[in-house]
Amino acid sequence: MVHPTPLHKHPGFNVRLGFVPLLDSAPLIVARELGLFDAEGLDVELVREGSWASLRDKVSFGLLDGGHMLAPMPLSMSLASDRPKVPIVVGMVLSRNGNGITL
Questions:
Q1: Is 0.90 surpassed by the pTM of this model?
Q2: Could you give the CA distance from residue 59 to residue 47 in angstroms, rounded to a whole number?
């Protein structure tokens, strides 16, 4: 039986993830600061974007490997009628609009 090496275990595997600097991007930022990406052998570069449209476009054209997006964005990217359709997969949900800081 063959046990393939996961892609992230190959040397030089790096991922560029875009985010819009809002509270719900905190899981990505905290994961980087705590070294959770490094612990999994991932070289993750977080790229700050100024708008949702910029993030969408950069993922669509391959300038970013993925990103933190509004829930309907991946669906609209794959069903687009006014721009090239992009096949996209949603791996996880970071938030369900229950964000907050309580003191």
A1: no
A2: 11
At 28, is the secondary structure helix, strand, or coil? helix
Evaluate if residue 77 carries a pLDDT over 60. yes
24-52 pLDDT, tens digit each: 888 899 999 999 988 888 889 999 999 99
Taking the C-alpha atoms of residue 61 and residue 1, their distance in angstroms, rounded to an integer, is 38
What ranges make up the beta strands (E) of 1-103?
Answer: 14-19, 43-48, 66-67
Kindly state the tokens that stand for 62. Answer: 């391959």
Round to whole Å and give the CA distance between 63 and 55: 9
The residue type found at 64 is L
